[in-house]
Amino acid sequence: MTCVTVEIIDHVAHVRLNRADKMNALDPEMLDGIVQAGADVNRDDVRAVVLSGDGRAFCAGLDVATFGKLGSDPQMLLERTHGRSNLFQRVAMIWHELPMPVICALHHTCFGGGLQIAMGADIRIAAPQTRMSIMEMKWGLVPDMGGMVLLPRLIRADVMRRLTYTGEVFTAEQALDWGMVTEIADDPLARARELATDIAGKSPSAIRTAKALAEIAATQPVEQVLLAESQLQADLIGKPHQMEAVMANMQKRAPDFK
C-alpha cells in the first residue's frame, strides 16, 4: 500500500498521508513518500494543493521506532541531502517552497513532525476537536523539521518558546488565537477542497506571483518589498492570464485560463 497518495483533479492536487493504522506516524518510508509527493505535484497544471491525513488523525508525529535509527547515527542530520535541508526538514519545507498555495486539513491529532508539516502549508484548517503539540521536548528533543523556520512567521516569540519548552498539548481554538490555524471547520477537508477549488479558478500566474510576493514580504526589507511589488505586477499586466481575468469580469462569465 502506498503511504502517501496523490490525485490531481481539475488543477487541484490532493495529497493524502495514507498510514491510517499508525495515525500517519512518520517512518522512513513515509518521509520519502511525502517528499516525493511534494515533487510530484510541482507541475504547471497544478494550481492548488490539499494536504490531509487518512483515518482518524492527520499525523501523530515521528514513529517511535524511527528514534532508534536516529540514535544510532545522529550525525546523519547534518547531511544536506535535499539542497539546504536534510530529509526530515524537507518533509515540511517542500510545502512551504512549492510555487502554488497549499491548504492543510487537520483533524484529531497533529503532533511534533506532523505539526511542522502543517506549518509548511499556506493555510491550515482544523476540526474543532483537533489536538496539537510541538511535542519534541517530551522526548528530550527540539523541533528539527523546519519548525524553527516556519513557526516564528506565524506566532509570537513568547508563545512559541512556551509551547516548545513545555511540549504541551493545545486545542484548535488556542491555535486559532495564536495564528497557527487559519480557521476551524466541522469538516476541514471539505473546506480545504472548497478553498482550493476557488483558488484554482483564479489566474494561475497571479496566484503563483502572490505566493512569491508573500514570501518576499515576510523576509525582505521594505525597499525590496516595494520594488518586488512593482516588478511582479509589471510582469502580470497585459499578459494572457491577466487579460482573461479582465474579460471574464467584464463579460460576467467564469474565466478560462489556458
Automatic annotation (TrEMBL):
BP term (GO), one: fatty acid beta-oxidation
A Pfam family the protein falls into: ECH_1
Superkingdom to which the source organism belongs: Bacteria
GO terms, molecular function: isomerase activity
InterPro entries: ClpP/crotonase-like_dom_sf, Ech1-like, Enoyl-CoA_hydra/iso, Enoyl-CoA_hydra_C
Pathway: Lipid metabolism; fatty acid beta-oxidation
Keyword field: Fatty acid metabolism, Isomerase, Lipid metabolism
Record-linked NCBIfam families: PRK07509.1
UniProt family annotation: Belongs to the enoyl-CoA hydratase/isomerase family.
Protein name: Enoyl-CoA hydratase/carnithine racemase
Source organism: Pontivivens marinum
